[in-house]
TrEMBL record:
Signal peptide annotation: 1-17
Organism: Melipona bicolor
GO molecular function, one term: ligand-gated monoatomic ion channel activity
One Pfam family matching this protein: Lig_chan-Glu_bd
The keyword Cell membrane belongs to this UniProt entry's keyword annotation: yes
Residues marked Interaction with the cone snail toxin Con-ikot-ikot (site): K752
UniProt topology in membrane: Multi-pass membrane protein
Positions of the Ionotropic glutamate receptor L-glutamate and glycine-binding domain: 410-475
Protein name: Glutamate receptor ionotropic, kainate 2
Main location: membrane
Localization annotation: Cell membrane; Postsynaptic cell membrane
Keywords, sorted A to Z: Cell membrane, Disulfide bond, Glycoprotein, Ion channel, Ion transport, Ligand-gated ion channel, Membrane, Postsynaptic cell membrane, Receptor, Signal, Synapse, Transmembrane, Transmembrane helix, Transport
Binding-site list for L-glutamate: T486, R491, S657, T658, E706
Record InterPro entries: ANF_lig-bd_rcpt, Glu/Gly-bd, Iono_Glu_rcpt_met, Ionotropic_Glu_rcpt, Iontro_rcpt_C, Peripla_BP_I
Amino acid sequence: MLDKCLSLIFFFCCVLAVPRSVNVGGLFDTDDTIRRTFESSVKRVTQERHKFPDAFLVANSNQVDTDPFNVSQIVCGMMEEGVAAIFGPHNRFTSEHVQSMCDTMEVPHIYGKWEHSQTRGKGINLFPNAETLSMIFDKIITDFEWKVFAILYEGTDSLFRTHRLLERWDTKSIGIFLYPLGTGPSYRKAMRQIKDDEIENILIDCSIDILEKVLRQAQQVGIMSEKNKIIVTSLDLQTIDLEPYQFSGVNFTGVRLIDPEKPLVASIVEMHKHEWNLNYPSQLRVEPALMYDAVQLFARAFNRLKYTIEVKSLPCNGSVSWEHGYSLNNFMRVTEMEGLTGLIKFDTAGFRSDFQLDVVRVTEKGLKNIGVWNSTSNVEWLFESHVNSTNAELSLQNKTFIILIAINPPYGMLKKSASTMSGNDRYEGFCIDIIQELSKMLGFNYTFEVQTDNQYGSKVEKTNKWTGMLGKIIAGEADLAITDLTITAQREEAVDFTMPFMNLGISILYRKPTKTPPSLFSFLSPFSAEVWWYLIGAYIFVSMVLFIIGRMCPAEWNNPYPCIEEPEELENQFTFKNSLWFTIGSIMQQGSEIAPIGLSTRMMAASWWFFCLIMVSSYTANLAAFLTVETVVSPFSNVEELAKKTTIKYGAKYKGSTFKFFEDSNYSTYKEMYQYMKENEADVLPPDNDIGLTKVLREDYAFLMESSSIEYIIERYCNVTQIGGLLDAKGYGIAMKKQSDYRHPLNTAVLKLQQSGMLTELKKKWWTQKHGGGTCREDGGQNQAEELDLDNVGGVFLVLSVGVAASFFYTVFELLWEVGCTSLRENVSFKEELMAELKFIVKCDNSSKPVRKRKGSSNRSGEDSTRGCTPPYGFIPTIRTSSSDDK
Ligand code: GLU
């Protein structure tokens, strides 16, 4: 009995503890998933009693059509029954109708759908504000630097969604083209127009219901290829099958509100996946998710109203309103919660605020988050370059590139073979080898395509379009271009280049200089003018010094008549004339009859002979070189001189980077040269290097070309050479489409080739070894004879100077010694004797010297004034004493 009583008490307690059930109405039109998420959310609130003890919600779901009358009937029915809030419907018109009914009765109206209105009424819309969404696409396009793009749109709502982008339109810098998708089911017409207009950047704005079909058709039409960049505005992009686009190489970006990797999202979807008919969290669309969040938000707000809320019957024909509706609305606007669609929070205007959108990119591995945008800041890009490069490197594997080449030796050539060849085997050359090496490193395949007109690419100013190889790269007809393709600033604006694989500069190719006619004075060539002047100087100086030393040296005063034992006077052979004759005789290798006797004069003569020996030998040797080596003369030695030569034609490759260099230059000489080339375009601008070379060989024509190509030519054509240095410095690179994902891996690979010495090896192979390389090397190696200048023979002059100085000092010493001896012997003062001696020496016209008689001594004393200077033949002249008195 007691048991029964206790159970009864417990039962009543439980019944009394259960809060009153609260009806919430749901109106659903087309999308059944929204109804399901609504009901699941209500169920979940009732299940989470610990969280929402006061909200025992009961879902009152109703399917509605688009007829406002029918909808109002259903709403009236619900109101009469009593509802705490009405969720939905989705249709714009019926929703507005429901909103006005709810406003009248002050019943909260909650929904989650895109609305273009700039203000929010009393209803609560969980969908992000249209203006905010428009802003994010504007920011993405700014960061992507789209200058020209198409908007492929479904209806007028799309234009509201993208109105910020449309405001960017500017005739000069931003081109925006609108293409309506049309009514479907085929949207290809608009897409074909985009393709025909060659617009590569496309923003697609359409509902998720047709998005899959639109994308599929876009791919069929060919506007979802590697060259295209696509942005899809739908927040539900992630819910469709993106696999067909993952490997197409298209740069495909979108945004998402729901992050399927978030634990909250994953757990809720996992909980309801059967009810919602979903396999993965990423399949959850935004609107159903917003409905789920809307119920959760309502439950939280309801729970916050602590006092008991009575839901009351509100007949449509009455004038009663619900007193708690306004408070509930306010509570909902100030409640913050984390939902499936991120943070749910409203600003004062009633719009969702502080929510976050992920910018996603379709990659081979699926959708990758590449950026984050939250309402307060710009898009924060998450290591996009890293994402790109890793993907690009992966995507290079087994990828097949169309690579443009040009037939221009040695960069690209047709293989000569007896058997017929096909495909890539037909080509060989420096660039072909580089591609081969790169493909080995990066794992891509390739097909070469020859640019038959040899036009590498220049911009047509009128149409703003690019010609040649670069035109094809830009148009997406080829992936890469490699040849002697110069990296220039203008080209870099249109395409991307790898690091240069070869460095070079502009120079002149001209025929080899002609031989100079033999000169009348070519015998002077062995020595420079300076040496000749020094030589003359040395000759005069040495002759004079010899003359002076000769007079000073006592030994040079000799008895002219050996048979006369007591000569009246002594004679000196080094008269001024004889000195000159002695030195010239030595130079001419003929000698003279004059032979120095004194030690000092011999010292002097020896130095001079040594000097003559070296000088004459050098002269002879160098003269031989001058006579055997041909002296050549070029009509110009640099570009400035070429510009002045009116008789020589000159030009560069038509529309090549060299020609462009002259066109863009501000230097007056180059400007004039450009004018000349432009005026004589047909005659002086050959279409390729081969024709330029032929012109050099056949005409009086100088070809301005790149040093690397000149190097190749002069190895093989011995009649031509490079004249002057380089006018600039630049490099060749591999061209690819702007912002290509392959740039980074290709750059790295080119650098590796450079560092490993592979590029040097290849250059050696194709320049100096293959196809006649080195033919002209022997000729080119001929030495030019060079005149000897003072640097070469300065040492000989030094030896001569030392010899002259030594002999001079020795003579002075001899003289002083002799004067000393004489003064002692003659008993005169040293000074007196010295003065007398010097006076005689400086009397240069006198080559005979009277013999002095010793006072009071016999003539035959054997002591004479020449003692101390040993005559060479052991002959001691008999000195006749003479004095001034004798006269
Ligand atoms: N390398 C040049 C170019 O890329 C062609 C040769 C030249 O202009 O000298 O256009």
